[in-house]
Amino acid sequence: MKNIISSFLLLLIVSCNSKTTEEKTTTKNNDNVATLTAAQLKNTSFEIGNLEKRSTSSVLKVTGKIDVPPQNMVSVSMPLGGYLKSTKLLPGLHINKGEVIATMEDQQYVQLQQDYLTTKSKLFYAQKEYERQKELNQNQASSEKTFQLADSEYKILRITLNALSEKLKLINVNPNTLSEKNISKSVNIFAPINGYVSKVNVNIGKYVNPSDVLFELINPSDIHLNLKIFEKDITKLSIGQKLVAYTNNQPENKHKCEILLISKDLSANEHSADVHCHFENYDKALLPGMYMNADIELKGNNVLTLPQDAIVNFEGRDYVFVGINENQFRMTEVKIGNSENGFIEIKNPEYLQDSKIVTKGAYTILMKLKNKTDE
Questions:
Q1: What family, per the record (predicted)?
Q2: Range of 129's domain?
């Protein structure tokens, strides 16, 4: 008799446990299902749809800095050296091409002008002597050796004069206007470009060598953006591709750019390449060396998407509501990707194929479901 009672109690306990587990499973499943009344369906604006295949774009976010092409940067030096007599340049000062930016002086400038004028005078006499000896030689009135000496002297002086003329041009002295009346110990340095002074490396009275850089000038009219692109993203870019750039201080101020050049050489440390971009409109507020952010729009392949209104976020996760029947909807978790033009990519579409999905009014159903769960 005791054995019969024990068996009955064990069967009763197992039955109760099984019933409890079944109730928990049913409750858990029901927690994800929202049931709407006919009145709720009538008073709420719902739209039902399916996954749609669309071509979406993604945005590649990169960083870089403003750079200036080499032809727009000039280092000013004095090819023969000398002392800086005067200058008005300061960093940031605007200059115009051809204006005097500094005056140099040195005794070698005087010596160079003297040598040029002396050689020029000797050349005049040598030319006359050459012509006279040539005529005498043709008439056999002088020896061949005398004519050859006159010819050699004439050629040497011509070579010397041309060389001295080029040296004078290096220090901005016009040999064609030079005479014994305007020899000067001072020479001027002229601005080679329009732009701004970037650096001033000398002070008045300082002696500079031919290799020393006196000033650095920049023409910012052709500044460009130099972006650092990692190896994995290089193949996504192409010349002519559009992008927008902005600074950290003014992220709302977007600057439109276009890719001009993509480097074929990757850096050893970062495995990144330089991508040079041209600003469509020059902004004087942008200065060389300034760091910028850039957003590059990348065209993607066709992917399955849903309207953004179909996605609801609950407790940090994204969900959609799939229709079970006319008034019941199951909340199903989804993984989302890029969004564009009101549509968002679904990365796990295999769970939603051929499903009827709420594309409008999803948050209303979420509120109904939450209220039911809280009861």
A1: Belongs to the membrane fusion protein (MFP) (TC 8.A.1) family.
A2: 107-184
Place of tokens 């041209």: 278
Say whether both 113 and 178 belong to one domain: yes
C-beta of residue 291 within 8 angstroms of C-beta of residue 65: yes
Q: In total, how many domains does the chain have?
A: 4
Question: 178: which residues sit within 8 A by CB, 6+ positions away?
Answer: 113, 116, 117, 168
Q: What is the DSSP string of 191-221?
A: --SSEEEEEE---TT-EE-TT-EEEEEE-GG
Helix or strand (DSSP H, E) at 368: helix 362-374
The residues, any chain, with a CB within 8 Å of residue 219's CB and separated by 6 or more, are 68, 72, 73, 74, 193, 194, 195
Global model pTM greater than 0.85: no
The rounded distance, in Å, linking the Cα atoms of 99 and 194 is 10
Q: Looking at the domain assignment, is residue 1 inside a domain?
A: no
Q: Are residues 205 and 169 in the same domain?
A: no
Looking at the structure, do residues 245 and 202 belong to the same domain, yes or no?
A: no
Instruction: Classify each residue of 14-40 as buried b or exposed e, where b means 16 or more C-beta atoms within 10 Å of its C-beta.
Output: eeeeeeeeeeeeeeeeeebebebeeee
- One DSSP character per residue, 7-50 reads HHHHHHHHHHHHHHHHHHHHHHHHHTEEE--HHHHHHS--EEE-
39-56 confidence digits (pLDDT tens): 777 777 778 888 888 876
- Supply the pLDDT for residue 374: 52
Give the CA count within 13 Å in the CB-facing half-sphere of 334.
29
Element (H, E) at 286: none
Q: Which residues contact 176 (CB under 8 A, 6 or more apart)?
A: none
Residue 173, CA atoms < 13 Å, CB-side half-sphere: 30
State whether 307 and 329 are in the same domain: yes
| Average pLDDT of the segment spanning 73-95 | 94
